[in-house]
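[step 3/7] fold_predict: job queued, chain A
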Amino acid sequence: MSVANSKAGTGSGGPGTSPFLSRLLLAIGGSILGLALVEGICRLGVEDGSRSPATLWGSPLMPKDPRDLRAAGRSEARYRYLEIDPKLGWTVAPGAELDEDAAYHADAAGLRTLPGREAFDPGTSSRRIAAFGDSFTHCDEVDFEDCWTHLLERELGTRVFNAGVPGYGTDQAYLRYRAMRERLDPDVVVLGLMIADIKRNVNVFRTFMGGWTAWTKPRFVVVGDGLELINQPAATPAEVPEMIARGHPLLERDWWYDPAEWRREPLDWSVAYRFARARLWKPLERPSYYLYDSEPTIVTAKIVEAFARDVEAAGGRFLCLLIPSEPHLRYGDVVPWQPLTARLAEAGVELVDAIPDLRAMAGTPGLFEPRGHLSRIGNEILARSVARALEHEPERTSGTDELLLVPEADAGLLHGVALGAAAVCAGLRRRSTATPA
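[step 4/7] structure written:
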């Protein structure tokens, strides 16, 4: 009887199961159910990655999934105004129109203009001016009548072609000039250099700068004393997800590439794990791109120098118009981009600095539009700055056609100031979070 009772007692927790093991299994089972519940709740809260990286409660999941890039931007209106271009990355579509935050109209050559104008029509003017640059040259957020290129045309009575393209880097502006110079045949070329373009000039995959798009662009890399163009023809949006997923070598040529943002790990099937990973993730630290010897500053300076040489070799005059965004107006006389302007001054590039006049207007209501571009007020300042520069012929060195901005002694002084600004910036660490078009 005692033996039978003993056997019966042994089986009370199940055949061959001890009370400790039962509690352990119960705890494990409860944990699994709890984790499954958490995972289920997280999956229900995920927002898809068509307009931005997949997010959970406002936090992008880590790693980002390159497959989500396939749908990126398809529903955005501005992508109907722009089109993919293998040589430039993208460009304004010929004849495109868009009525969004302002009315945009492009002629048959993809130049922003007034409706009804023929492509490359010089009008009655004997002088032709062409402006290249990004959205601050294209004049996003304002109608063309309020754009600085149109205001300049009215003030000078000279035909001014607007070849600006939203989202462009200086490299793309230069490449577009090379593609259009024979048809435009400009007497004067104005490069609208928005200060943030320094960042774009070392970028290939636009999504690495904080945007959510599969578009890519060519970029120049420094080889010896010259420049070498890579990613031309530009990788297409259809190719980009696979390139990122497989770790294509071109990724390493992008200054903004952070492998940790995209690197897959065994537990990445779990949304909860990806959320936790994102919360613990620290962005890759990089030195300030404004430093005198930083790659972004060196590359930008070399692009502008090459741009100026090409224009001058064709018999034209080259102006580099410095354009700030609203945050750039907060600086005083010593600005972090001084190293770039020092390099350009040393190279003899003719600069038109509209920043002091715009800084004097800082705080004026309506100086900037809601998405950060200049309003008509700001565009009037840009137009006046260029008009003043064109009133005077630039000084030239004896026996050469090289343009001078300042005397050599002053250029040396600028170089010293630039080094001081670089020292101030040396401790800065930053990461770009957005890229306005």
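[step 5/7] annotate
The longest strand covers residues 188-194.
The radius of gyration is 28 Å.
exit 0
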